[in-house]
Amino acid sequence: MDLREIQALIKFVSQNSVDEVEINRKDFKLLIKKNPAQVTTAVVSAPTMVAAPVATQAPAAIPASAPAVAAAPEAPAATNYIEIKSPMVGTFYRASNPETPNFVNVGDEVAPGKVVCIIEAMKLFNEIESEIKGKIVKILVDNATPVEYDQPLFLVEPA
User: Fold this and answer.
1) In whole angstroms, what is the distance from residue 19 CA to residue 40 CA?
2) CB 119 within 8 A of CB 95
3) Under 8 Å CB-to-CB from 45, ≥6 apart: which residues?
4) Kindly report the CA angle at 40 between 11 and 92, in degrees rounded to 5?
5) How far apart are CA 93 and CA 133, in angstroms?
6) Which residue ranges form the domains of the chain, and what is each CATH number?
7) Distance CA 61, CA 69 (A)
8) What does pLDDT average to in each consecutive run of 10 residues of the chain (159 residues)?
9) What backbone phi and psi angles, to 5 degrees, belong to 157?
C-alpha cells in the first residue's frame, strides 16, 4: 500500500460515515479511527523500508482531513429531505466526461428517470437515475471519489 492509497483512505474515512478502518497485511497494519471530536491515524509497521516513509508521512495528512470532519455538522437538517443513495460500490462522477456539464447541480429539478450521476464499477459506467421528484438541495459526494453501497449521494427536497 503506497502513500497515495493511505491518503485516499484517510480522506474517504473523514468524508463518509465510516468510523473505523483497519487493514492487516503481512508486512504492516493500518488503523484509522474517526471520533466526533478528532481524527486519529495510527500506523504500526514491521521494520521494512517501504513502511517507514509511510509512518512518517501519514500523520502529515491528518490536518488536511480535519476541516472536512468539522464541516460535516454544517449539512442541512435532513428531516424533510430524501436521499438519493448509491446502488453499488464504485467511483462517483457528476458528468459523463470532463468536457460535458454536470447531470445535476444544486437547485436543479429532478424527476423519476432523470440521470443524476454515473458510478463506475469494474470499468462499467452505470447511469444512476432519480426515483423521486423534487429539487437537489445538496450534493454529498465530490466528483471522482469512491462511494459505498447505500451511501447518500444527494439530498432532494420532495416536490
Assistant:
1) 10
2) no
3) 27, 28, 29, 51, 52, 54, 55
4) 15
5) 21
6) 3-74 (no CATH), 82-158 (2.40.50.100)
7) 13
8) 74 75 76 60 46 44 46 54 95 94 96 96 93 96 95 95
9) -90, 115
